[in-house]
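User: I'm writing a tutorial on reading structure tokens. Could you give me a worked example: one chain, its sequence, then its tokens, then a sentence or two explaining what the tokens reveal?
Assistant: Sure. Here is the example chain.
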Amino acid sequence: MIKPITHNYSSCSIMNTSKTIDEALVIIGRARMGKIPCNEALDRLWEVLVNLDFELKTRNPIRHCALYN
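And here are its predicted structure tokens:
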């Protein structure tokens, strides 16, 4: 059985973007090698992207507004 990837973010809740991208690439690699089903990989990637999106939006809300308006 494959162990789920767990998040170990700091207590200040600022996500390390580089680690998050690495996590996404590992998920993709595992799916391509057939170690996890594609649907599970998509679910994990969705979670990673939603978390990253939230962190980026809350880290700098002024920049977010400028980008999306």
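What the tokens reveal: DSSP finds three helices and no strands in the chain. Confidence is low (pLDDT under 50) at residues 8-14.
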